[in-house]
Amino acid sequence: MTPRQKALWLFGAIVLLLAVASAIGSVLRRRATSEGGRAVVDNLIARVNAWWVMVAFLAAAFALGPTAMLIMFGFASFFALREFVTLTPTRRGDYLPLLLSFYLLVPLQYVLIGLHQYGTFAICVPVYAFLLLPAAATFAGDTPDFLTRSAKIQWGVMITVYCISYAPALMLLDIPGYHEADTLLVFYLLFIVQLSDVLQYVFGKLFGKTKLAPQVSPSKTVEGLIGGGLSATAVGGALWWITPFTWQQSLLLSFIIVVMGVLGGLTLSAVKRSLGAKDWGVMIEGHGGMLDRLDSVSFAAPVFFHLTRYFFT
User: Would 159 be classed as within a structural domain?
Assistant: First the structure.
């Protein structure tokens, strides 16, 4: 089966599942009687609707090729960084480093991936950007909270640009016997991360009793984590046929993706709480902002990339 045929089967199956989920959500909405029940159903429907949008964008990017995938993620990083900066207090002296972050670092990072410059791409942000941004801020002479402000901008660029860019960077990998299917690996990563999030929510609502981190993310439960995480891991193992892995390797890697996704979600939830915000933005109806959807990806993508590169290239 060719990569395109695999993609068609995969997208067809997901569209069918989403259609079933939308139909179930419609039935549940009519049958919900309590206010709490309606709120849960509405949240679930919002998640399904967000999936429709994500799958549509991914299908278009897959059809148009790697360049379209890079452009899509480039815009995602741009909007995620904008949300981070919007919630993070800045001063006039931060204008130049912010300008460089949005209009130099974001496009440069994705251009380097497009040019297959792995070495430069891997160190551009954590070395050169981390030196450049605070140095640029010094020219404004705005010294109050200089270290804190610089660290916030550096952290925002690291999470929203560098870490997220590792998802499309999977297309850089030269895996023997797995040519012309690199975008499927990107889809594999995103699918496991997002499916884990949805299943943890569903299992949490059905069986959740023990709060995982009540001060950080009140809706997450231990039961939801175990049930949703293991279910997403099992689905990842079953999707070995779109990857260069055996089913055992796919099972292990999907488990690592789930774990890192949970850590990413909790970490960025803690950042939101420290800023007094519930969501990063309002870009996605019922789901907050772009970074609310990519917080798990920001932790899972670099780890998945390097494990795959180390063991399979």
Answer: yes
pTM of the model: 0.89
Query: Hunting for tokens 């199956």 — which residue is that?
Result: 13
The Cα diameter of the chain in Å comes to 62
Domain residues for 143? 66-165
Q: Is-contact 261 300, C-beta < 8 A?
A: yes
Q: How far apart are CA 204 and CA 40, in angstroms?
A: 11
Helix, strand, coil distribution of the chain in percent, nearest 5: 80, 5, 20
Is there a domain that residue 121 lies in?
yes
| Domain membership flag for residue 262 | no
Rounded CA-CA distance 80/134 in Å is 21
**pLDDT per residue over 230-254, tens digit each?**
999 999 999 998 889 999 999 999 9
Rg (CA), the chain: 20
